[in-house]
Design brief:
392 residues, Rossmann fold, 2 domains, 16 helices, elongated
């Protein structure tokens, strides 16, 4: 079991906390602050314990100097200060005397945010390649390291693994919550255990299927990946998205687990993503149509499995929910999960965005903040950002 922030005496200590402030920003305005809000309990705990709080986060990918202007963390510092009800000191640099002096002058209970860690990627990707000199430098700025950025735990970066290599370390409240939600699913889920898989590509979900097919009672498949499974079943699916490289995998899984793999029986189609939506049974696909959502009969079919489920894991929207014409299926699943009294865990990324956007976040047991990290956890992989943390 990993140490947590509660396992350390924080008073007057310089506590480095890796958070995930990788949020969408437009015209210096934060479009969705969910990740910032989710980090607040750990930051607030450190403040209350009298720590000198030093925050590190990335934002976007830095390839050019224009990216540096685009992905400046200053708007996040202002927004976080409003959430905390106190000033967040912002240092516009990732290293150097100005940063070191600001930390030296930091008082207990104060919060400081360092500029975007990926500014260090501009020249030679020192952050993303976990350059040992950079990790050691950032570690020198603190006494204790706390990782609370679940969304980056599947990456070995200087700002997580690099720092943790040199300091006493623990996980924050958010990561602890993530592990508490996923561990029962991976180790001993209550049955019936139903998985909903969506999204575009089969390749993104192969290892999840392979890792969980024996644990799950049913896997309901929607989204773009459903059409690859349907084609593998011998069904003509028009111009729908197909992951040609993995047709054989789909065929094999369907043949091996015919009672577990549940595919759509109808579909919302159009000639293009801006076209007129029409519902058709899978057998009635037209050659010029693209499948873009599950149909009403598929929703009824899926509901039969979801109503009886004690554990539900959902990773991937079942339609192109960004377009109102193709959001019905994803919204309907949100409603079905709301009515279910069991454990309901939503993977991060687009699935989390859809659930939050449609107003169902309070109906879920847990919504993950990490798309790639939650996916790798479900694949049975070890996450380097967590593995490096000290054991109790």
């Amino acid at each position: 079991m990993k140490k947590t922030i509660q396992d350390y005496e924080l008073k007057n200590k310089r506590v480095l906390i890796r958070v995930d402030f990788n949020v969408p920003i437009k015209n210096n305005q934060i479009i969705n602050d969910n990740r910032i809000r989710m980090s607040v309990p750990t930051i607030q705990y450190a403040i209350e314990q009298g720590a000198k709080v030093i925050l590190l986060s990335h934002l976007g990918r830095i390839k050019t100097e224009e990216d540096q202007q685009k992905y400046d963390l200053k708007p996040v510092a202002i927004h976080l200060g409003n959430l905390l009800g106190q000033e967040v000191i912002f240092v516009e640099e990732t290293r150097g005397k100005r940063l070191e002096n600001a930390i030296e002058n930091l008082q207990s209970g104060q919060v400081l945010l360092i500029q975007n860690t990926r500014y260090e990627d501009l020249m030679d990707e020192k952050e993303s390649t976990n350059h040992p000199e950079l990790g050691a430098y950032w570690a020198s700025l603190g006494d204790i390291f706390i990782n609370d950025a679940f969304g980056t735990c599947h990456r070995s970066h200087a700002s997580n693994v690099g720092i943790a290599t040199h300091l006493p370390s623990g996980i924050g409240i958010l990561i602890h919550k993530e592990l508490e939600a996923f561990t029962p699913i991976l180790e001993n889920p209550k049955h019936p255990f139903t998985i909903i898989l969506g999204g575009a590509k089969v390749s993104d979900k192969i290892e999840v299927i392979e890792n969980l097919i024996c644990k799950a009672d049913y896997i309901l498949i929607g989204g773009g990946m459903a059409y690859t499974f349907l084609k593998a079943s011998g069904i003509a699916i028009g111009k729908s998205l197909v992951d040609e490289e993995h047709l054989d995998f789909c065929k094999q899984i369907i043949q091996q687990y015919p009672d577990k793999i549940i595919l759509p029986i109808d579909s919302i189609n159009a000639e293009d993503i801006d076209g007129i939506a029409i519902e058709r049974f899978i057998s009635d696909f037209k050659p010029n149509e693209i499948g873009l959502d599950i149909g009403s009969n598929t929703i009824k079919l899926f509901s039969q499995y979801l109503k009886e489920s004690q554990t539900i894991l959902w990773n991937g929207p079942v339609g192109m929910f960004e377009k109102s014409n193709f959001a019905k299926g994803t919204k309907a699943l949100c409603e079905l999960l709301k009515e279910n009294s069991g454990v309901k865990v939503v993977g991060g990324g687009d699935t989390a965005s859809a659930v939050i956007q449609f107003g169902y976040s309070e109906s879920m047991t847990h919504i993950s903040t990490g798309g790639g990290a939650s996916l790798e956890l479900l694949e049975g992989k070890k996450l380097p950002g967590i593995e490096i943390i000290n054991e109790k």
